[in-house]
């Protein structure tokens, strides 16, 4: 074929008549083009053979400078297959993603016309290329002298290309006397860039930074390197793949002395270089900060070689269907075979040869070389032997194997390591068979093995100590081969660049790679999907309670997940980041200037802190400075003695309770400092200054510098509280839009998709069809839609191939309930998941994973004439970024911001009888008619009762109830009137260690009552007195001692004469009881007499001491009303009641259900003239009576002794009106008040 000179027309034209069509149509055909010299090829155009049925539908390209050591064209980390023609006349053009720089191009047909033969007309487009080349032999080094002896360089641009067969060697090196350096070197065929812009003398700031790129760079092909540095920011580009990083330390300049060297280390550096080798190979186009180094060297006519010698290696590339057969000596008593190989597979057959009476096999097994020898002796007896050597040989590097068997022993040497050679005895003489197979695929015709074809490269094959002439093999002069590629090694490192995201560990075989995501916080085929929610707010909406959680604010973005504390007890959620400083840390170790520096760390990065503060509505951090002879801020106009450093290393001289630019403390703002002449208490050497820092753009505090601790007697203690942030300013979780027309849509500016793309959103609809979103790019598209009311489909384009995934839901999706869609596409697979349960996973095509080119706008809804989505959509995220549906919906016809109807999907999160209330951007739980509190009505409300403590709740007469109806709507507490109860449900939890005692007493101030008591032995008893019974109806529930200090839950439900009791004891056993009254009575609570005195005598001495919680009678929660000061209710409390949940576990017992609604109350109102009220008494009712009697007795006795003159007291004034003597002292003694206040602080004597 004559030389082919490229042309550069602006548009492709028909390539003329004729064309190339080989005589044989098979996979061994190729067309080679000689460009005359090295050219830069940027595009290829193909056509079928003129006026024929011959064309090439798929093809590959190889290129070389010397017609040897061919290299396949790669794209997306794969040997690229181009789409060709579908007829003989059409013209197909491909712009190369990366230009080919070579003299020779080979066109390799892969698929062709089914009705004809291989045929092609082609043109290559490009331009001329020329560069100076320098050859390095490992001894010569080029030193480039800098313009001055010492250079402080803030910006560097270095460019070079290199080519080598050696895996180790220094390409460039420069250093300075202050410890700065820059070095670029090959290590195990990978390129490592090391930079140090300076470390300080104490070593606290380490400047060393090292980044590795590439793999298999000893392939004797040209590789381009570009290093761009501006201050600490570096772009490191190898073969069009760029890594961006920032150097360690705090210095910006690279301080170099005198010179920078290329090809190795200067002689002056070598003694301390640690055995680093010089580069062996070729470089071209070396430029340093605009200076062409290769051109300068050439002009000075240094004693160097300005050409690149050809390599003598001849590689053979094996796939899973390849083998190679070579001849050797037969009937020889010596077997000697050696070869070099490289592969990623842990298993594969390297060599097989038949002996005169047996066989020998050399294989790679789990990364080790194994040798099997089997010989049949004369008497039909078999002798076999197995031995192995090496490990981890499937690392993609070149490894050598040498097997030598002669006389009575065999030797196996791996990687030329004679010291590790394996030797073994052979009991018999072997005779060679004369034929050697390499690669293994021939075994499909052999009955002894079904395994392990070798996939990889071989070179330097020796048989009988002679180098095999593989060029003669290529020409058909010796041996034979099948489906191998000669004079090339097409090994591809699928882990470089690493497609495992977020630190996932990549491993590979010849065909694919896999990611180990353990410990990364991410999951999926490429470790792309975060395992955690983006904020505490999202955990709350999942029904989680307060605690410690991992959050990932940017989801699948680059920010790593981190742990925070989430406080979800209120309507707003607090996110807390703790620091390392203990409260009241003593300030010591002042420096020579008299300043003490305290570093505050948070175990998170600055970027992670910023992700919390930037999305929060409000942040705060508590700071406190306790002092003695240690001033804080000085005057507003003076230089502050103490300051703190916040975000971005900015210095601030205001303190808690104040604001930016105001050098005052909280007392200075509020004008209540101890010394009014100062604006901080500590500036007068008194007390403490404390408060909240709330300017969130300055937070968190990272350092505090205390400047007044060197005076005699100076002492100070510092407290820096955790950073606390509240609210989700971006409101991502409920960011929603409603689509009211199938023709409506929202559109967003174009964005560029990534290799891995994830999409998630929630939707609710009553429609059966609709397009959720689509993006119709110039070469790629993405489309998600609902079909048939039960199917969600996800379709996209990869490398010109359309893929579609569909997930079918067993329940309708158009039920106006919220459903979640999650879709992900990455380099290995595509995943579509619905409602976190139903999913489809499909592998993606191996090529075409260049970053998606979404040059058109993203449409939420349908813009292409299809039926758009009708309904609500919220929380749309693509690659961790939330799209503002509400903001975009404002002013868009047919789309409204927000969405109603959240309770239809989330009411189940409102627990324990809480009512779900709709909000514009979410929902809330109304807990007013429950005994619980908190955002989901799951927080226990209870109290600790001491001896004599009493809580009383009165059911008001009809007039009172009517008067309080309006108040009910304001306070959220129902206040029912008097009633005859024919059914009730009583629920509560308790814990106590004392018995006997009365737990709950419900009465109408008559003989009708319900009492729950603990008997002397701690067992539970229920007592009903209804309708004038002579004796109360008594139920002994269980024989266990429940006065054991553990929490227990009780549920008592009565409907007329039927009683059901449910008891949950502390260790999880649940007891059920059902009872029927034996008498035909009017079973309702009515007024007939007085309180049962037997209860006082038997069960209430000394009275209940312990905890009660979750107390609820029908829709009334009396204990909650007593403990919540903002609730208006007919409640009274005597004694000390301390809030506590009593250690009760979350409620797991479902409410007792009867045939009718147990929450329904049938009321029979008394006439107003009755003037009596039903009431509920809690444990201290009788104890209060006894306590009062005892007090009277003590008073009488004291009075008697006073008159006799035998007892005297200095009781404080006011004791008569106080609850006890202690209370009187507190009220009347000012010093006691001051003592209590000051005891909370630590003072220095």
UniProtKB/TrEMBL annotation:
Signal peptide: none annotated. SUPFAM superfamilies: Concanavalin A-like lectins/glucanases, Fibrinogen C-terminal domain-like, Galactose-binding domain-like. Disulfide bonds join 872-899. It comes from the Eukaryota. It is a single-pass type I membrane protein. Residues 491-528, 900-938 form the EGF-like domain. Residues 1-127 form the F5/8 type C domain. Pfam families: EGF, F5_F8_type_C, Laminin_G_2. The keyword Phosphoprotein applies. It is found in: Cell junction, Paranodal septate junction; Membrane. The chain crosses the membrane at residues 1174-1197. Residues 527-579 form the Fibrinogen C-terminal domain. One of its GO terms (biological process) is cell adhesion. InterPro entries: ConA-like_dom_sf, EGF, FA58C, Fibrinogen-like_C, Fibrinogen_a/b/g_C_dom, Galactose-bd-like_sf, Laminin_G, Neurexin-like. NCBIfam families: GGGWT_bact. Belongs to the neurexin family. This is Contactin associated protein like 2b. The gene is cntnap2b.
């Amino acid at each position: 074929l004559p030389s082919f000179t490229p042309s550069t027309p602006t548009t492709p034209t028909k390539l003329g008549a004729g064309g190339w069509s080989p005589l044989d149509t098979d996979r061994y055909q190729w067309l080679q083009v000689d460009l005359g010299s090295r050219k830069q090829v940027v595009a290829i155009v193909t056509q079928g053979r003129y006026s024929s049925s011959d064309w090439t539908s798929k093809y590959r390209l190889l290129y070389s400078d010397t017609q040897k050591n061919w290299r396949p064209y790669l794209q997306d980390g794969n040997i690229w297959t181009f789409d060709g023609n579908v007829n003989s006349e059409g013209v197909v053009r491909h712009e190369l993603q990366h230009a080919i720089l070579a003299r020779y191009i080979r066109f390799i047909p892969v698929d062709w016309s089914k009705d004809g033969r291989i045929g092609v007309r082609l043109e290559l487009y490009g331009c001329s290329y020329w560069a100076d080349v320098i050859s390095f032999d490992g001894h010569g080094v080029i030193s480039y002298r800098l313009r001055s002896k010492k250079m402080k360089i803030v910006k560097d641009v270095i460019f070079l290309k290199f080519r080598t067969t050696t895996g180790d060697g220094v390409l460039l090196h420069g250093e300075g006397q202050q410890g700065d350096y820059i070095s670029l070197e090959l290590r195990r065929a990978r390129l490592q860039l090391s930079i140090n812009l300076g470390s300080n003398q104490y070593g606290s700031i380490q400047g060393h930074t090292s980044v590795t790129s590439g793999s298999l760079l000893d392939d004797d092909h040209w590789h381009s390197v570009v290093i761009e540095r501006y201050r600490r920011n570096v772009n490191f580009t190898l073969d069009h793949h760029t890594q961006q990083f920032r150097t360690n330390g705090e210095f910006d300049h690279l301080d170099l002395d005198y010179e920078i060297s290329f090809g190795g280390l200067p002689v002056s550096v070598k003694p301390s270089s640690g055995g680093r080798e010089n580069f062996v190979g070729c470089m071209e186009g070396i430029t340093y900060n605009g200076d062409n180094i290769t051109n300068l060297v050439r002009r000075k006519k240094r004693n160097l070689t300005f050409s690149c010698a050809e390599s003598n290696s001849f590689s053979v590339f094996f796939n899973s269907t390849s083998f190679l057969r070579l001849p050797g000596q037969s009937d020889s008593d010596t077997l000697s075979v050696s070869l070099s190989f490289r592969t990623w597979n842990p298993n594969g057959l390297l060599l097989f040869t038949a002996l005169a009476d047996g066989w020998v096999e050399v294989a790679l097994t789990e990364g080790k070389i194994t040798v099997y020898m089997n010989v049949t002796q004369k008497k039909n007896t078999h002798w076999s032997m197995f031995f192995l050597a090496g490990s981890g040989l499937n690392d993609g590097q070149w490894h050598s194997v040498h097997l030598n068997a002669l006389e009575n022993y065999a030797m196996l040497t791996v990687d030329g390591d004679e010291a590790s050679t394996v030797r073994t005895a052979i009991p018999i003489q072997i005779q060679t068979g004369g034929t050697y197979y390499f690669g293994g695929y021939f075994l499909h015709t052999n009955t002894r093995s079904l395994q392990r074809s070798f996939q990889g490269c071989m070179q330097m094959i020796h048989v009988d100590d002679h180098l095999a002439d593989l060029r003669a093999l290529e020409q058909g002069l010796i041996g034979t081969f099948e489906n191998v590629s000669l004079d090339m090694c097409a090994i591809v490192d699928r882990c470089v660049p690493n497609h495992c995201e977020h630190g996932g560990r990549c491993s590979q075989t010849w065909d694919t790679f896999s990611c180990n995501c353990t410990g990364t916080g991410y999951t999926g085929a490429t470790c792309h999907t975060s395992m955690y929610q983006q904020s505490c707010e999202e955990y709350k909406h999942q029904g989680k309670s307060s605690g410690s959680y991992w959050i990932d604010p940017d989801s699948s973005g680059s920010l790593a997940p981190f742990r925070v504390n989430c406080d979800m007890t209120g309507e707003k959620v607090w996110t807390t980041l703790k620091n390392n400083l203990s409260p009241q840390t003593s300030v010591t170790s002042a420096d020579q200037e008299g300043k003490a520096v305290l570093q505050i760390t948070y175990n998170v990065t600055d970027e992670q802190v910023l992700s919390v503060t930037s999305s929060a509505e409000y942040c705060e951090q508590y700071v406190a400075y306790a002092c003695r002879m240690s001033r804080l801020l000085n005057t507003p106009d003076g230089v502050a003695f103490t300051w703190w450093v916040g975000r971005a290393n900015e210095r601030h001289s205001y303190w808690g309770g104040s604001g930016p630019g105001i050098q005052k403390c909280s007392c200075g703002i509020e004008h209540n400092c101890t010394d009014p002449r100062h604006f901080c208490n500590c500036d007068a050497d008194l007390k403490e200054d404390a408060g909240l820092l709330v300017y969130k753009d300055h937070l968190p505090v990272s350092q505090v510098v205390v400047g007044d601790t060197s005076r005699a007697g100076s002492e100070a203690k510092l407290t820096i509280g955790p950073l606390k942030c509240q609210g989700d300013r971006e409101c991502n979780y409920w960011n929603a839009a409603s689509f009211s027309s199938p023709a409506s849509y929202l559109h967003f500016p174009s964005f560029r998709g990534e290799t891995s793309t994830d999409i998630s959103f929630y939707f609710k609809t009553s429609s059966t069809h609709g397009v959720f979103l689509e993006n119709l790019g110039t070469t790629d598209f993405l489309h998600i839609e609902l079909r048939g009311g039960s199917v969600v489909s996800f379709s996209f384009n990869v490398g010109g191939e359309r893929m579609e995934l569909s997930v079918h839901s067993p329940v309708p999706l158009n039920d106006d309930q919220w459903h979640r869609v999650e879709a992900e596409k990455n380099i290995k697979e595509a995943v579509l998941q619905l409602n976190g349960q139903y999913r489809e996973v499909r592998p993606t095509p191996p090529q075409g994973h260049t970053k998606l080119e979404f040059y058109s706008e993203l449409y939420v809804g349908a813009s292409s004439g299809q039926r758009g989505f009708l309904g609500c959509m919220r929380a749309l995220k693509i690659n961790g970024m939330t799209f503002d549906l509400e903001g975009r919906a404002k002013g868009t016809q047919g789309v409204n911001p927000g969405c109603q109807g959240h309770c239809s999907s989330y009411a189940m999160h409102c627990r324990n009888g809480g009512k779900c209330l709709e909000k514009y951007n979410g929902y809330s739980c109304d807990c007013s008619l429950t005994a619980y509190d908190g955002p989901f009505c799951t927080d226990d409300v209870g109290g600790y009762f001491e001896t004599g403590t009493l809580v009383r709740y009165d059911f008001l007469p009809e007039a009172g109830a009517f008067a309080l109806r309006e108040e009910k709507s304001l306070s959220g507490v129902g206040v029912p009137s008097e009633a005859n109860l024919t059914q009730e449900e009583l629920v509560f939890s308790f814990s106590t260690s004392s018995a006997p005692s009365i737990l709950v007493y419900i009465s109408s101030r008559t003989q009708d009552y319900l009492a729950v008591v603990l008997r002397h032995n701690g067992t539970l008893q229920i007592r009903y007195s209804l309708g004038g019974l002579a004796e109360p109806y008594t139920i002994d529930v269980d024989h266990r001692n429940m006065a054991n200090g553990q929490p227990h839950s009780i549920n008592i439900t009565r409907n007329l004469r039927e009683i059901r009791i449910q008891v949950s004891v502390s260790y999880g056993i649940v007891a059920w009881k059902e009872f029927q009254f034996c008498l035909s009575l009017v079973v309702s609570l009515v007024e007939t007499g007085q309180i049962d005195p037997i209860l006082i005598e038997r069960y209430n001495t000394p009275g209940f001491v312990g905890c009660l919680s979750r107390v609820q009678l029908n829709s009334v929660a009396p204990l909650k009303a007593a403990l919540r000061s903002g609730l208006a209710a007919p409640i009274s409390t005597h004694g000390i009641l301390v809030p506590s949940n009593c250690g009760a576990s979350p409620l797991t017992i479902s409410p007792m259900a009867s045939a009718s609604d147990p929450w329904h109350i049938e009321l029979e109102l008394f006439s107003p003239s009755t003037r009596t009220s039903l009431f509920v008494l809690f444990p201290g009712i009788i104890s209060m009576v006894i306590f009062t009697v005892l007090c009277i007795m003590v008073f009488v006795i004291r009075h008697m002794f006073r008159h006799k003159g035998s007892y005297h007291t200095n009781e404080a004034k006011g004791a008569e009106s106080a609850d006890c003597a202690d209370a009187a002292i507190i009220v009347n003694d000012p010093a006691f008040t001051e003592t209590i206040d000051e005891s909370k602080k630590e003072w220095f004597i």
